[in-house]
Amino acid sequence: MAPTFELEAKKSIEDLGDDELKGKKVLVRCDVNVPLDGKTITDDTRIRSSIPTIEYLKSKGAIVTVCSHLGRPKDGPEDKFSLAPCAERMGELLGQEVKLAPDCIGEEVAALVDAASEGDVIMLENTRFYKEETKNEPEFVEKLAAPFDLFVNDAFGTAHRAHASTEGVTKFLSPAVSGFLLAKELEYLDGAVSNGEKPMAAIVGGSKVSSKITVLEALVDKCDKIIIGGGMVFTFLKAKGYSVGTSLVEDDFVETAKAVMEKAEKEGKQIILPSDIVVADSFSPDAETQIVAADAIPDGWMGLDNGPDATAEQKAALSDCKTVIMNGPMGVFEFEKFNKGTFGIVDILADITKDGAITIIGGGDSVAACEQSGRASEMSHISTGGGASLELLEGKVLPGVAALADK
Predict the structure, then answer these.
(1) Is pTM beyond 0.90 here?
(2) Gap between the Cα atoms of 218 and 201, Å rounded
(3) Would you please indicate which residues are annotated as catalytic (active-site) residues?
């Protein structure tokens, strides 16, 4: 079992006195890694999520400098990965100019920060324009930290990476504390898993058992019910001896799926697989479709979504749950013909939240599905991190969190 630690024991910006912030040069690691179409931001959720921490620091008279990565630049600066659109959008949301520095280290950055006044906000250019960022190289880290007095990590999306801007700078800047977003992520994701109210359910979807197996095993330990959806269903159905047609199957993981089901049975946990499946004759938005029982998938057909009976059974199973974590979609929701299973479960979650359940949407495609269905705002918590949420649910220590100051 990976080491775990008390997350409540980490300092957040609210633990700092006013004198620790006023006039201080604060480096804030945000996650503004937003999807772009050319220079146009197609979803600004991550930038919006970073605003409360920046507003708080401004209100305390800090000089705020934001750093982040965007995309995966190969070698050196590339215009398409510039943070210019992010600085502009953040400026609109804050109602003030956010100056984009020409670099993330060096004299020009230092000069910009030195010239700034209390309440100003600066954004450093993409930290991943330097490969030293992901390698966490000490000389680069020292240059990145040089102009600043203290560090705030508010980037949950990269907290599972020990990079220069998430973990390295904590060696040079003190105090190093969490922002509101990071603190909220930890409170919900870790809090729910460690001591969430029972009955607790997990919804695990997505195409591959291989990428979700550790989280599945961890959740079987903690949850009373596990709903399995998405492409990984067919590896489980094959493990039950059913024929799955041309559906996605990971043959190397059929035994693993069997072991998970056996473990659940032994521990008295319920694993819920869909009882009916929407199958298609090809992987395309306009394929021919039919609804079949899970044990009667015809040859030459592939399962691409849950059927209506499966959704009804999920509704019944979740109706008495007090804590529900969703990680991954139920089908190929990008195609309209195969989005009912995913949107169906999103509706169920939104409805039980109204009745007092805590619902946590853990990153990636599940978030996109909630946004598309228009019910995202009805969930208790929507996580901004994909890989980071998975690792936290698996019980792993996130280096970006471990490096922060203890209370």
Answers:
(1) no
(2) 12
(3) 46, 208, 364, 387
Residues 6+ apart with CB under 8 A from 26: 57, 62, 63, 64, 65, 148, 149, 150, 151, 152
CA distance 311 to 318: 10
Match 């056996």 to its residue by tokens: 262
Report the candidate in 223, 168, 170 with the shortest Cα–Cα distance to residue 200.
223
* pLDDT tens-digit profile, the chain (407 residues): 333 444 557 899 999 999 999 999 999 999 999 989 999 998 898 999 999 999 999 999 999 999 999 999 998 999 999 999 999 999 999 999 999 999 999 999 999 999 999 999 999 999 999 999 999 999 999 999 999 999 999 999 899 999 999 999 999 999 999 999 999 888 888 888 788 899 999 999 988 888 888 889 888 988 999 999 999 999 999 999 999 999 999 999 999 999 999 999 999 999 999 999 999 999 999 999 999 999 999 999 999 999 999 999 999 999 999 999 998 999 999 999 999 999 999 999 999 999 999 999 986 788 889 989 999 999 999 887 777 888 888 888 899 999 999 98
- Largest Cα separation within the chain, whole Å, is 70
Please provide the DSSP assignment of 79-136 as one string.
Answer: GGG-SHHHHHHHHHHHTS-EEEPS-SSSHHHHHHHHH--TT-EEE---GGGSTHHHHT
User: Residue 178's beta-bridge partner residues?
Assistant: 12, 153
Cβ-Cβ contacts under 8 Å for 3 (sequence gap 6 or more)? 397
Which helix (H) or strand (E) segment is 49 a member of? helix 45-59
